[in-house]
Structure formats: structure tokens, C-alpha cells
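Slide 14.
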Amino acid sequence: MSGLLSTIIALFATMGPLGLALCALTEKLIPIVPSSGLLIMLGRFAVADAAALPGAVVATTVGSTLGSLAWYGLGRWVGAERGARLLTFGSLPSLGRERRERLHRAYLRRRFWITFLSQTIPVVRVYIAVPAGALAVPLTGFVVATFAGAVVWNTVFLATGIILRNSPVTGGHGDIVTAIVIALLAAEAIIAGGIRLLRRRREPV
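Slide 15: predicted structure.
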């Protein structure tokens, strides 16, 4: 996995900022590799130095936001009724229509901050755009909040990659970085599993 990922990242890196944007876009649309691990690898192998970090952040944030817009468009196509269900990850049959509508209204009242913060939460950051589109969250606000949240997320992990590369402890030890990426992958899997478990517990027996 690590060798294949490194090869793919090296390929994207040859394309400059466009490659970074495409890499982030692909990750948002097909989240096979955790975003945090991917960004660390990009920071380690595809960002020349700290001076190049702002450009890398912008490029990856643009790609990530475009990916969210694709999910947002899917949500608009899905529609508001099913979007309200997606807002709580499909666990709504036991909640009732009235509570679903309250959740809908609560999201719309705090749509900027919920969308912004969702971009800093593994798993949720990918799929929050679907209910946002389905519930017709205003597009401009959605884009601004998504972009701002992605800037925070991307900066942290791209910078982590640069730090790991330059660190005397991890700089020459790819196995340590690989272990970090695997740990992040495991963490996102645990979060996804936890969400599914909560959903099953809420479902009526």
C-alpha cells in the first residue's frame, strides 16, 4: 500500500499544483486512503519546503472543495426528504418526522459552522456535502465554509509531512511514516465503525 501510494503521489507531484489538486479531488470522491495519511505523504514527498506550503494548501483545498461540490450536487439530486435522513447517517426511522425536521432546521441555522467543522472530522468531512446539497444549503456559504475548513485540515497534515521529512528521527525512516499513515487509516476505520454501530443501536428492533 505504502509503495503504491508513494508511486501515485510521485506521479501527481510531477504535475505541480494541478497534480496536488487532482490528488485531493480524487481522495474526496474515492476516499480509499484516509485524507490525513494522504496529505502527510504529499507533504513529505510533493512539497519542496515550507515556502511551498501555502501553494500546496491552496491547490489541495481547491481539489477537496471541488470534490465536496460533486457530493453536494448529488445531494441536490437526492432531494430534501432523503437528505434529512442522510443528515444523521440513515438512523432516522426511530426518530420520527418532527425530530428530523428539527435537525434540518438546526443544521440550516448553523450551516456555516457545521459545514466548517465537518471538514476537520474524518469520514464526516467527505459525506456532509450530500445532506447539505439535499437540504439546499446556499451554495456560496457552503463553498466558503468547506474551503475554510479544508484549509485548516490540509495545512495541519501537509505541514506534518514536511516536519516528518525534515525530522532527524523520521526523515530517513520511511517505515515510521508508514506506521503513522496506517495508524491514521485505522483511526478513520474505527470512527466509521463507531458511526455504523451508533446507527444500528438507534434502529428499532
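Speaker note: Confidence is low (pLDDT under 50) at residues 89-95, 170-174.
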